[in-house]
Amino acid sequence: MVLQRWRASARWVLSLGALSVLMGCYTYVPSNVGVAPRGTTVRAQLRGDPVFEVGDRRVRDVAAVEGEVIAWEPDTLAVSALELRTDGGESVDGGGYTVRLALADVTNVGVKKLDKTRTALTIVGITAAALLGARGLTSAFSSHGSGPNGGSAK
């Protein structure tokens, strides 16, 4: 019985922890085209459903590209691609391949920044889950203790 309660608490804590990690601590802050320096992680929203070659794969209908800025050129943004997202919601690993985005197709550029609110909420969530899990574990063990004279409760 103690082990069952502990497992239930552990599952709950792990689920909450996984959810908070999936939320992430980062957000994308809108930026002007050409402003983010080399090495900055950006996400560019695209129009026109462009097609990109990523290694030996051709990725069609790309809606967004996340990557590190290599260079801003007069009419293109070159990034080391981390991820490409299609209109259909497919996520494709960019593998660090260089992808050149035509600035005419870029509708929005966001710079990846640490979101203090999300980070604080993640820390609070993980801490609360750990405390609730510890409380559940403590109560599970304390309820399985002894009878009135120190003997077994069973």
Structural class by secondary-structure content = alpha+beta
Tally the beta strands.
9
The domain count comes to 2
CATH class of the largest domain: Mainly Beta
Strand portion, in percent?
35-45%
Given as residue ranges, the uncertain stretches (5+ residues, pLDDT < 50) are none
List keywords for this structure.
alpha+beta; 2 domains; 37% strand
Task: Please describe what this structure looks like.
This protein has 154 residues and is α+β, with helices and mostly antiparallel strands. The chain has 2 domains: 2-21 and 115-142; 26-113, Roll (SH3 type barrels), CATH 2.30.30. Helices cover 32% and strands 37% of the residues. It contains 2 helices and 9 strands, in the order αβββββββββα. Strands 1, 2, 5, 6, 7, 8 and 9 form a 7-stranded antiparallel β-sheet that branches. A two-stranded antiparallel sheet has the order 3-4. Strand 6 and strand 7 form a beta hairpin. Helix 1 (2-23) packs antiparallel against helix 2. The chain is elongated and about 70 Å long. The two termini are 12 Å apart. The model has no long low-confidence stretch (mean pLDDT 81).
Q: What would you say about this model in short?
A:
The protein has 154 residues and is α+β, with helices and mostly antiparallel strands. It is built from two helices and nine strands.
